What does this fold into?
Amino acid sequence: MSITGEKKKQIAVLTGGGDAPGLNAVIRGIVFKAKKLGYDVLGIMDGWRGLLDSKHCGVLDLDQVSDIHMLGGTILHTSRTNPYKIEDGPKKVKETLKSLDCDFLIAIGGEDTLGVANKLVKDGVNAVGVPKTIDNDLSETDYTFGFNTAITRATEAIENLHTTAKSHHRTIVVEVMGRHAGWMTLEAGIAGGASVILLPEEEFDIDEICKILKNRKKKGKNYSIIAASEGAMPKKGQMELQVQEKDAFGHVRLGGIAQRLAKEIEKKTGIECRHVVLGHLQRAGNPTVFDRVLGTRLGIKAADMIDKGEFGKMVALKGTDIVAVPLEKAVGTLKTVPKQRYEEAKLFFE
Ligand code: F6P
It folds into this structure.
């Protein structure tokens, strides 16, 4: 209620998909701006699942969110629930929003969460999207929050592995998350000084990799680090692939490439190999300065867009500006690493 006793308009906010450092900064930005504009913000718990089960944490007040931009994870928790895979899911989502007295919705998530938001807009829901993913694979935005923190973690790991690899004359294969986009592996691989970087965007040739490693040895470089995307694929017939299970959005659960590659390289070259899977360490912990600030700015803009009635749109970073772009365009195509960016990295494969 406002001081005049009048009921305020309510915005429901949810976070969906894998967590990404910076989510809490977005929530804080939304709550502060929404309050200024005269709205209450209702926190929906566990992503889309919360709108199916009517699970929420009540109206978020300024005190509750005042310091959360420094914290990793999401105070609203998350899930990979897909309402469009559940009988009457979209209908239930709309009914829950109505029963909670929320005329507006802000969905913070990656291509899956925003894909659902986009469909709901077509179904009459007044929704705005905020792009989130450590994978940085969403179109129409230069960067997603979470990515900077994830590459900072991955870079530290790759950089630190140099001393142990060097001490043992070993090759270490580091598996980096990112699904079907190699952004994290590319940037952390360059920054962390990997000798070879393998991306999902281009099938790799094991014999080529072995040649680079042997050449390094000949030149007196007694160790190597290979940064391999979890979605990197060998050329046909070169390595056995794992059978992979799928999640509610139809994504295969990736993983295992580093272990299999390390084994194969050792067999082919006689060089002692080890592997490291960075996994969820890349998403864990508190966000970097970049992600705290980006998240904050995206949150403020999302609340502003609700007020201006810019539904069916997503907030985005273009250069240094925060702008509104159509959700449809953002979820239409995955943003992968362009060939020329990979060529730049290859200059240092030696
Ligand atoms: O999309 C983010 C991401 O961390 C991917 O890089 C990774 O493949 C996937 O999520 C892991 O999913 P989960 O957290 O469900 O294991």
User: Anything to note?
Assistant: The first helix runs from residue 23 to 37. The pocket of 6-O-phosphono-beta-D-fructofuranose is lined by residues 18, 110, 133-135, 177-179, 230, 254, 283 (CB under 6 Å).
